Amino acid sequence: MPQLDAFATEPSSSSLIGTKVRLDRPTNREHGCCDNVVIIGKANSLTCTTCGAFRGWLSAEAATFIIETRARFGAPESIVLRTPRAPPAPAARADPPPPVKEIK
Ligand SMILES: [Zn+2]
Question: What is the pLDDT of the chain when averaged over all its residues?
Fold first, then answer.
C-alpha cells in the first residue's frame, strides 16, 4: 500500500485536470454551450468538451469539494455542478399577512 499521508496537507488542483464536469447552474441554462459539459484544465479552467470554448473557472470551493468527494467515495461517473436553490422571494410567499388588531 502506498503511503500518501505526506501529501495530505493541501488538495492538489492538478489532480482535477481532465475531469469532466456538467454545469447545471441557472446561468449555464440561460447561457449554455453545447451540452454544458466541460473539462477541467490548468488552473481549474473550464473548457467546453464539444466546441472547446472557454467556460470560466472552477471555484476553489468546488475544486476542493470534488477532490474530497473523490477521495472519500471514489470517482463518480459524472460530476454535476449546481448552485443551491435560492430561497423564495418574499413576494412569492403564500403566507397571509398577520391579523391586525384594531384598538378603539
Ligand atoms: Zn460548446
Answer: 79
pTM value? 0.62
Residue 97 lies in a domain: no
5 C-alpha to center of ligand 1: Å? Answer: 39
**Ligand 1 geometric centre to CA of 17 (Å):** 18
Answer whether residue 32 shows pLDDT above 80.
yes
**Domain limits for position 17:** 13-81
Which three three-digit cell numbers place residue 54?
Answer: 472557454
Kindly give the distance from the C-alpha atom of residue 53 to the centroid of ligand 1, in angstroms, as a whole number: 6
Give me the number of domains the chain comprises. Answer: 1
Q: Say how many Å lie between the CA of residue 36 and the centre of ligand 1.
A: 7
Q: At residue 78, does pLDDT exceed 90?
A: no
